[in-house]
Design goal:
EC 6.1.1.6, 26% strand, ATP binding, 14 helices, Lys-tRNA-ligase_II, 518 residues, 2 domains, aminoacyl-trna synthetase, five-stranded mixed barrel, Lysine--tRNA ligase, nine-stranded mixed beta sheet
Length: 518
């Protein structure tokens, strides 16, 4: 197969030289005033008739199908908005253009001017009157224009995956629409978008293992951020009362269908709010994204051809979307249930009953020895309760010791004012009533760091953050949303690597082999 691919590449290289021999630049030039193919396809089209010429159009894209028939060629041209058939007749183009047409390969980029109409079979077609070469593809493209079956190949060649797998391109468009909607929604609510550092001297804001690096000029160790939280809360102290950031976060941990070491987070903070404020905000934000995608796929904004069906059912303002083999009803209001209530319902004991909790842990083959009570509670919750959360459900009031940055509930300091939003067992959002008492914050930091080795990257107190709190941070609500997981839900995608354009992969063990579709 590798030899076959090499032979095909040599044939393409030879065609490159022949194109140059025609006096053409095989790497193209500026080609202005084109119309997206999806837009062209919406224009009126009648049968080709020399007496009544059709609409003149100009398009550019990639050749994804090629069929020859003597003095007539049929091609299929692709751009991100759709595909259209091209018809090239020997008597409709110049001699040089006809020779060029014979040298085209799948994957080549071309521009065309011509007449838009329908063939006798009713196929929407551009009858080419001028052919412009824009770039040569020196590597063979897959023959299967409907998609590539090898997942590993698709992930390593995302640029081909987007061309030949319609769902990949659809998800890319929809991800952009989700992020655009989030920004628009928050901007309308008066939030200010900011950027905070990616390199941190202390890995804080979450319990996660960071990626470590080194700054040569200052000769200091640094960490890629594991959360956006602490810099944003410093901005609350500085007077930015509604602030958010959409940014990449890095955690040096495992890979799974729901985890990638590099992912996108939304974090926001609102002065004078609390975790219930954040529940309302989260609900409104997700509903706005559902509605925006429904409008886009129903024709309000162009998406790739073949994917313009409505994804959400909006009947009597219900918002029901597919997810896997089931559906999710995102019609507000979302369910709200306390952590303790769900724990007792599914585990069968009170989460504060230490004896019962340790017995339940042993029954689940969880070794309780040496583990703090709340750690056992959380392990049981993850093992037993999470998978039963169909949702959407806001799970609120978590064990306090698990939440070092969260305000305790005044009526019961054993729990913290925190919620997580679950849908089909998947956590989508995490929010707090933010802790703004500097003394309590210093104490919870110390408790969190107790027992960690001194050289552990996470065993460092962020004294500057505590100092910022001592200058006065307003009471506030804070929210974190995993954008990749949200896109997974809204696009009915089971794996996080299919909503991230370039997920982390192991290095290729051998030199790249043949294109499996060539």
């Amino acid at each position: 197969m590798a030899d076959e691919t090499q032979d095909l590449a040599e044939v393409r290289a030879d065609k490159l030289r022949q194109i140059e021999a025609l006096g053409l630049d095989p790497w193209g030039h500026r080609f202005d005033n084109t119309t997206p193919i999806g837009t062209i396809r919406q224009k009126p089209a009648g049968p080709f008739d020399d007496a009544n010429p059709g609409l003149k159009v100009r398009a550019a894209g990639r050749v994804v199908r090629y069929r020859t028939g003597g003095k007539l060629l049929f091609l299929e041209l692709w751009d991100q908005t759709g595909r259209v058939q091209l018809m090239i007749r020997v008597n409709k183009v110049s001699e040089t253009e006809w020779k060029l047409a014979q040298l085209l390969d799948l994957g080549d980029l071309i521009g065309v001017d011509g007449e838009f109409g329908k063939t006798r079979t009713g196929e929407l077609t551009i009858q080419v009157e001028a052919l412009t070469f824009l770039a040569k593809s020196l590597e063979p493209h897959p023959k299967d224009v409907f998609g590539m079956g090898d997942i590993e190949y698709r992930l390593r060649h995302r640029y081909l995956d987007m061309i030949y797998t319609p769902d990949t391109l659809r998800r890319a468009h929809q991800r952009v629409q989700v992020i655009r909607t989030i920004r628009t929604h928050l901007d309308k609510l008066g939030y200010m978008e900011v950027e905070t550092p990616t390199l941190h001297s202390i890995a804080g804001g979450a319990a996660a293992r960071p990626f470590e690096t080194h700054h040569n000029a200052l000769d200091i160790g640094l960490y890629l951020r594991i959360a956006l939280e602490l810099p944003l809360k410093r901005l609350l102290v500085g007077g930015l009362e509604k602030v958010y950031e959409l940014g990449r976060v890095f955690r040096n941990e495992g890979i799974s269908p729901r985890h990638n070491p590099e992912f996108t987070m939304l974090e926001l903070y609102q002065a004078y709010g609390d975790y219930r404020t954040m529940m309302d905000l989260t609900e409104g934000l997700i509903v706005a994204c559902v509605d925006a995608l429904d409008v886009a796929t129903a024709g309000g904004e162009e998406l790739p051809e073949g994917h313009n069906e409505s994804r959400a059912v909006l009947i009597d303002r219900k918002r029901i979307i597919p997810f896997g083999e089931a559906t999710v009803d995102l019609t507000p209001p979302f369910q709200r249930a306390s952590y303790g209530t769900l724990f007792k319902e599914h585990v069968g004991c009170d989460m504060f009953d230490e004896t019962a909790v340790r017995a339940a842990a042993r029954a689940e083959d969880i070794n309780p020895d040496g583990k703090a009570h709340d750690v056992l509670v959380q392990e049981l919750f993850e093992d037993i309760v999470e998978e039963k959360l169909v949702g959407p459900v806001f799970v609120y009031d978590y064990p306090a010791s698990l939440c070092p940055l969260t305000k305790r509930k005044r009526s019961d300091p054993r729990v913290a004012e925190r919620f997580e939003l679950y849908v089909r067992g998947m956590e989508l959002a995490n929010a707090y009533t933010e802790l703004n008492d500097p003394s309590t914050q210093a104490a919870t930091f110390s408790q969190q760091l107790a027992g960690l080795p001194a050289d552990e990257s996470m065993a460092k107190m962020d004294h500057d953050f505590v100092r910022a709190l001592r200058h006065g941070m307003p009471p506030a609500g804070g929210l974190g949303v995993g954008i990749d997981r949200l896109v997974m839900l809204l696009t009915n995608t089971p794996s996080i690597r299919d909503v991230i354009l370039f997920p982390l992969l192991r290095p290729e063990a051998t030199k790249p082999g043949a294109n499996p579709g060539a």
